[in-house]
Amino acid sequence: ILRSVGGEVATLTDLLPNLERIIGRQPRTGSAVRGVEAQNRFHFAFRQFVRSACTPDRPAVLVLDDVQWADEPSLDLIQALTDAEGDDDPPLLFVMCYRDNEVDLSHPLSFLLSDLRSAGVKTVEIKLDNLRKENVNDLLADATHMRPE
Which Pfam families match (predicted)? Predict the structure, then answer.
């Protein structure tokens, strides 16, 4: 992680303080920045962090639930992680769950998904309907090792 992220590791630990448990407290290098430059530094550092954690031998799945409530900086980070940069993209699969009845065409998530598709990122949409009572009964029976009634 330290080799991959380099001098920007403090950018990560500012927002992910528990990371210090893994890499230890790191000195801050460089000057403090704000606004777009701070966001760019964080995106770079986070991409490098993900690249160090995900390898062809250790692919990862990142599950994000209730993405319809994600703020724009979070959606920007998803965009930054999926921006194609050649062969060094990490083997990372995003599973983004959201309530489609809360996401219309003007929702920021709709714009993100459209941008991802336009950039050639492969997306698959799976719509889930409500489970029937019988299905819930079967799931509970299986989980509790009981016979369904």
Answer: AAA_16
Mean pLDDT across 39-54 = 86
- If you search the block for the tokens 């990862």, which residue do you land on? 60
CA-to-CA distance for 149 and 138, rounded, in angstroms? 9
Instruction: Please say whether the beta carbons of 99 and 68 come within 8 A.
Output: yes
Query: Residue 20 — pLDDT band, cuts 50, 70, 90?
Result: confident
The radius of gyration of the chain from alpha carbons, rounded to an integer in Å, stands at 20
Domain parsing of the chain, residue ranges: 1-53, 55-149
Residue 86: per-residue pLDDT: 56
What is the DSSP-derived secondary structure letter of residue 119?
T
Query: 25-60 as b/e, with b when 16 or more CB fall inside 10 Å?
Result: ebeeeeeeeeeeeeeebbbebbbbbbbeebeeeeee
The candidate with the shortest Cα–Cα distance to 68, out of 111, 121, 124, 39, is 111
In terms of pLDDT, which residue wins out, 146 or 11?
A: 146
Residue 96 has pLDDT above 90, yes or no: yes
